[in-house]
Structure formats: structure tokens, C-alpha cells
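Q&A log
Question type: sequence-to-structure
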Amino acid sequence: MTPYDAPEGSLIAPGGTGDTGLVIRQETADDHRDVREVHRRAFGDGDRVPGLVEALRVAEAALAPMSFVAAVGDRVVGHVLLSAARLDAPRRIVDVLSLSPLGVVPEFQRQGIGARLVAHALAAADSQGVPLVFLEGSPHYYGTRGFEGAGAVGFRSPSLRIPEAAFQVARLSAHEPWMTGTFVYSEVFWAFDCVGLRDPGDSSPA
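Response status: OK
Response body:
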């Protein structure tokens, strides 16, 4: 778990302790209903993003999903999911992760919760020896949170519908220079039409 010191004026009590402090922790089965509500409210897109999360949890994949929630007291207010993807590299296929979705309920946005979820997710991926984490999102938001433009450092997008600036990667400690090539989403993302939907001019997190 990761305690959190909230900014002044936040809805979160300072110090990250007590009933109203924010904690980042691994998702449990008891959180599933709350996580669905987080994404329903964060994205305002009906059941597509909640459905994506539920499908990714149970999809067969080379890497198990990593799922984390942000909780304030007993309330889940944010969620991030890392799920298996592939890099079609010159030497061989490399197992990598996709960070998506990242959601925070509206009344708790702009308080640093998304940033804490991203940092926690990247640290977890790094600890498991995953070399790369990809996402689609705002370069203004993710560029200060461990990500960089993927195209500029040797990666090819999986879809023409992804704006170049939105195609982002975090190179972790297990990354090696030969690990370049085409990023390939899992079938679940295509089935839910969740590829190529990010606006690089949008400063909000994915």
C-alpha cells in the first residue's frame, strides 16, 4: 500500500492516515463494483470502459493483469489497470503491458490521485521485470509521469487512429536497446473498440 500526502485544499485529509487518508492498494474482488462505478463516472461512456476492465481481468494472457485502486477511507475513488500486450520486435515477440484505463471520480480529480496511481503501476511493472508500458493519452499529463513519445524512440503505433503525440511509452529497467518495433494491443481492446480514442490535446488522464 502507498500512503498519500494530499495538497492543501484537497478533499483528502493530510498525512495519508486515518479514516480519510488516501491509500493505493491492490484491487480485490470486493472492489469490482466500485471500480465499475469509478470508470462509469470518470469516462461518462456507458458500459464500454467498465466492460473493458471486466474483460481484461479474465482474459488469457502471457502476463497477469495488475490492478490497483485509490481508496479514501472505505471509498474507492480511483483505479488503474495494467494488462498484457506485445511488442513485435526484430529479435522476437516481447511481452509488455498496456496502462489503460486510468480513472478517478470527478470530485476527486486534480488532486494528484491519478499521478499516484500511475507511479504505483509503473513501480509494480518494473518490479516484475516488465520492460515497457504503453498507453494512449495526453503527452502533457503523462510526459511528466515517466512516459515519452513512443514514435520518437523507435516504436510503431498499432493503429492509424492513434494521434502520434498520444502514443506513449515508459521504458523500464528491464528494457534493452533492441526492444523496438510495433506495439500490439490484446484482442480485448479491439473487441471493445478502445483503440485510437485519445485526443492529444486533452490534458486529462486516460
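Response note: The chain has a mean pLDDT of 89.
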